[in-house]
Amino acid sequence: MSKENTGSPVYSIPLRYRKMENLHIVFWLLKDIGWCMVWKPLGIAMIFPTLIISIIIAWRTRQYMAELTHNLAITFWISANSYWMISEFLHFDEKIVFGAVTFKHLAMVPFTLGVLVLAFYYGYYHPTHKEEDEEIVEG
């Protein structure tokens, strides 16, 4: 962490990490364009770099709980989103698993995991570690 001229804390990301994050956005957009346009090879191929980079980003930020939890939530979101896309591409999204639950609804598992990770952070970790967060910011 560094401070601007105003004395406000600044979270600094190494340039090589920022370049990877920016490339991650390109892959994510290409995946979703493939999904939207029903270009199955593009959509499915972009799952791998999008998901791998999100995991790498989460790993690299593991020492900062705020960054780690948000990056894990993004990884779960991409996983859910990718599963949902595949279920539509392969036409099993509307098939019944049980009751009124379809295979598409199974995407709620990783979506829910992402929400639970953030609930842990905001509901427990952040309120009980305020001193630690302030030390990191002032660091």
From TrEMBL:
Transmembrane segment boundaries: 38-59, 68-86, 106-124
Keywords: Membrane, Transmembrane, Transmembrane helix
Taxonomy, superkingdom: Bacteria
Protein name, entry field: Uncharacterized protein
